Amino acid sequence: MDHLHQADLSTLSKQLSNKEFSSVELTQHFLNRIEQLDSTLNAFITPTPEQALAQACQADKLIQKGDTQTLTGIPLAHKDIFCTQGIKTSCGSRMLDTFIPPYESTVTQLCQQAGLVTLGKTNMDEFAMGSSTETSFYGPTANPWDHTHVPGGSSGGSAAAVAARLCPIATGTDTGGSVRQPASFCGITGLKPTYGRVSRWGMIAFASSLDQAGILAQNAKDAALLLEVIAGHDPKDSTCANTPTLHYADSIDNITSRYTVGIPTAFFDNQDPTLSTHIQAAIKVLENTGIKFIEVDIPHLPLSVPAYYVIAPAECSSNLSRYDGVRFGHRCQQPSSLSDLYKRTRQEGFGTEVKRRIMIGTYALSAGYYDAYYLKAQRVRRLIKQDFVAALEKVDALLGPSTPTTAFQLKEKNKNPLAMYSSDLYTIAANLAGLPALSIPMGFDQGLPLGLQLIGNYFEEAKILNIAHRYQQQTNWHQQTPDIYS
Amino acid sequence: MELSEQDVLSIAHLARLELSEAETHLYQQQLNQIFNWINQLKPVDTQSIEPLAHPLELTQPLRPDTITESINREHNQSTAPATEGGLYLVPQVIE
After folding, report:
1. Which of 254-313 (A) contact B at CB < 8 A?
2. Domain with B31 in it: what CATH number?
3. How far is A343 from chain B (nearest CA, A)?
4. pLDDT of A173-197, one tens digit each?
């Protein structure tokens, strides 16, 4: 019982159905860990112990009856961006500090229907805008590998919680790397599915053409198991794809397919030598599992970060116009006029980074600049997508680093927006093109984890999960946890 | 072209944000820095390239016009900062 938190989803599922322990016992184990360890990490904004134990009790009844699905009774944590009916959903912002959603997001609803138990809501950069979880109204989350470093962001709470084994698996969202970058910084597996693979209903919007729900997990197989639960068409989200889902966890064990993986040369320009050494080692491991590598060209890749920082803030400025102090969220005291109500409510409710992005987006969309900035960025976005489509006609997937460096220090970049934005150099392109991508741990540099990224073709999550699983069958980076959390 | 303090204040007005003097100066400096960096998109040849608004280029799907769920006003307004008799309260708009 002492090391239940080190078990992956397949193991826990088997042990629960063999009745080696109950879901209530398992849930209590994780609730105890959160209680004991989260005061230093700050991975959770709102733990939900009462609801968790009630759900676990329900799961135990189903297990007794033998009426179970694979993940019945397994606890998880949700990023505090998914609306949970009756449970505060803050999106890391003062604006939503008192917001109790009157409805449930599709992702959290599907998890409940699958019998999963919600341990709580995790910390994040305010409105998912940030790469370090430092912009949260609730204070930063620490990296479990070194508390003086950031966990990445914006899904930093979920990533830190999984890395410290305060939960077996967690949800996140990825608009420009917000699942993969924190997964890389925390030494875990992070999956961003194809745009539209998972419903965005009830997921608080940041940039609607880029946002996608994702998974932070101990390994690729666990991610595949949860993807089976959350993927699929949802009529409530008109951009959700009506494309059949697959049995991702079954196909993951396929070892016969001989894939060809492309290495985009642009990923390797000016690359840190330690990072290159690790990538080369990972390529060797994968070559031994029957994967062939070729170089490919994604010529417009370096333009993805500036194009993103026009498109994402433009969509953000439009989406966040709903926070007006009228229907929900923060409202300033004693407004003297409607204009005063709007301006002071938004001044008080939003933090510095959110306001900065609203300003960037408002300017890029304003009369006289729309063509020069917004339409220009959208044209560049098409060039980037075309590069990926062409490359993926020749190869099954693309491989590169997840991030340019290991986790940086707290406060190292939070005063310099451009330095912070550049930390998403390798992840942003997959969002612009809408492709599925994942990050898996591939080693350490001075005690901090490094992530390997795989990008797949549209709706081919199964392929990149399979390649990641092959790598994890040959390596044990994904099984390592920080000593104090083991 | 550099954004002046006045430009920053007009952007803030369009975004309905009140800014302190310190924020105005900070954003003026940072917005100029950020847009100078974004300007690397300018020289890219995009003449015959259509803008891409959405990665999957989906068309708007249609669904049958049937009642699925109804909104419970009281439940929905329970999270609003100020309501009365089922209405949202705002400062007086018309004299």
Report:
1. 300, 303, 306-307, 309-310
2. 1.10.20
3. 5
4. 999 999 999 999 999 999 999 999 9
